[in-house]
Amino acid sequence: MGKYVVSPATHPTDCGRFRASFSVQRSHGNGSYARVFRFDKTFASRDAARLFAVTQGWLETCMPQPSTC
After folding, report:
1. Residue 45 DSSP label
2. 61 with 2: CB under 8 angstroms?
3. Calpha distance 66→6 (Å, rounded)
4. What is the C-alpha separation between 20 and 48, in angstroms, rounded?
5. pLDDT higher than 90, residue 21
6. pLDDT in tens, 37-67
7. Under a CB-based contact definition with an 8 Å cutoff, are residues 20 and 49 in contact?
């Protein structure tokens, strides 16, 4: 997504639902930036979790400055 590489992922839970996560990576000159975002919310399907991860990754990369947690 632009100058970032966003990698969405899904993870099955013990109860048969799915969790979403994504990583954001950016390399610029001699520096690099990498973060992993994991969410507690669960989804009924792997596709729903992946869509959520992709959307959150897109929102994160569109922000003027990366969020700080």
Report:
1. S
2. yes
3. 13
4. 9
5. yes
6. 999 999 999 999 999 999 999 888 887 765 5
7. yes
Please say whether the dihedral angle defined by the alpha carbons of residues 68, 39, 35 and 47, taken in this order, is positive or negative: negative
Question: For residues 5 and 25, is the Cβ–Cβ distance under 8 A?
Answer: yes
45: phi > 0 → left, psi -120 to 50 → alpha, else beta; which?
Answer: beta
- Buried b / exposed e across 8-31, counting CB within 10 Å, b at 16+? bebeeeeeebbbbbbbbebeeeee
Residues 30, 19: Cα–Cα separation, whole Å = 34
Tokens of 32: 């690099």
Gyration radius of the chain's alpha carbons: 13
Can you give the pTM of this predicted structure? 0.78
* Tokens coding 63: 């922000």
